[in-house]
């Protein structure tokens, strides 16, 4: 069990993590966050963290593997009602950039740390972080968001061969409460940038860190293996890929990266 006593007094943020709820074990921090939203008025930035998530999920109900008390597993409640529904991918950009900012202080070589569209971070083509953002949209605006984050920190072995932890990369063991503090500070910094609607700056920062951007990458599409060049992200967050000079756009799960071929 980690020591998160007086955590909100230590963190240097305006609102993210100021309402901090630590659960030794939890079914799903995202589900817990939604239960809070349905039962009480939560402050923006309310953060739920657990040492042991028993039913963690990634995008489209994929599972998330994490040993108890070895990694960062948390969810943050946000109210990005300044974003139109069609702008929601900018929240994803903001969150992934914040995690990249955070991890860049610890990984051996920052140039090997990449954001993989749409919800992962990779180090040398191995997954170190997964993200699940769930939005509640009313009318044309995003009213509420729950940002779920899982980062591999001290875990030493994984069933999934493409997974890696920070400890495996550096040989060090990390103080999780200290890392959580730094992560939340980075999240707030990028969220404030988003709130200021610095979309062009965020997009440029994202492309600078995007895995495979302007490179030829192997994909699987409808049981076909093929190479394409990642050209960018369209206005709705779809991945734009050029195949033989023809540009196509894909939603999540419509195309699969073949990391083992890279």
TrEMBL record:
One of its GO terms (molecular function) is biotin--[biotin carboxyl-carrier protein] ligase activity. Keywords: Ligase. InterPro entries: aa-tRNA-synth_II/BPL/LPL (IPR045864), Biotin_CoA_COase_ligase (IPR004408), BPL_LPL_catalytic (IPR004143). One of its GO terms (cellular component) is cytoplasm. Residues 5-195 form the BPL/LPL catalytic domain. CDD domains: BPL. The keyword Hydrolase does not apply. SUPFAM superfamilies: Class II aaRS and biotin synthetases (SSF55681). It comes from the Bacteria. Pfam families: BPL_LplA_LipB. PANTHER family: BIOTIN PROTEIN LIGASE, BIOTIN--PROTEIN LIGASE. This is Biotin--[acetyl-CoA-carboxylase] ligase.
